[in-house]
């Protein structure tokens, strides 16, 4: 069984936005999940919790994700019309 993968990822330091593509009969739309990665001992983990020092990076990643989605939705609309 193959696990779904994001169509695009944006990362600044430890903050990552994963962009997921979803298709319906009428259109394509995108969702974003935001995570922070960290190392605990020898193991890499991720969380959806952000500290004060992560918030500006979170805003930058969110802005980049928004721009990527906007660009790709515009491109999708141009190819379907």
Number of helices: 1
Number of domains: 1
Percent of residues in beta strands?
35-45%
Largest sheet: 4 strands, antiparallel
Average pLDDT over all residues: 91
Helix content: 25-40%
List segments where confidence is low: pLDDT < 50 over at least 5 consecutive residues. Answer: none
Distance between the termini: 35 Å
Q: Which strand order does the major sheet show? A: 1-2-3-4
Structural class: alpha+beta
Order of helices and strands: EEEEH
Rg result: 15 Å
Number of beta-strand segments: 4
Model description:
The structure is a single chain. With 81 residues, the chain is an alpha+beta fold. The chain has one domain. 32% of the residues lie in helices and 40% in strands. The protein has one helix and four strands. The protein has a four-stranded antiparallel sheet with strand order 1-2-3-4, with helices on one face. A hairpin with a 2-residue loop joins strand 1 and strand 2. The N and C termini lie far apart (35 Å).
